[in-house]
Predict the 3D structure of the following.
Amino acid sequence: MPRPNALQKLTHRFLALRPVSAILSRILHRADSFMLRLTSGRHTFAELVGLPVVQLTMTGAKTGKQRTLPLVSLPVGESFVLIATNFGQKHNPGWYYNLVAHPECDVFFHGRSGKYIAHVIDGEARKKYWQLALTYYIGYKNYEERAAPRQIPVILLEPTK
């Protein structure tokens, strides 16, 4: 998966500004869901700025209902890494709690789907994937500062075989 180009990285700096990310936190998932419907599941707005996106279907922690969300992800071999920044807010995103309660999920990425299991990772593995995330989107550093003292969770989605 190619990393964002120079123009996309410049756009990332704008998107990571506090007022911009506050707006994005409220509208981006809806806009991406709309774009996915419009393009028959092929494109999202986040992809325009060089960020890979998966459609993640998981079970709701409280409701038990199936939920599908487009989420920025980092492809690593056959696995995916999710960064639960919630745009730097003080609390984790709702989808994080869904995966903790029900780690079995479905991932759709570039026309392919599969069953995965989610693992919250820590220690050296977390550091490694956090550094990888920063190569895709420098805004994660801003989000980390804003979210403090919350440590942003890093989730590894591994295929079930």
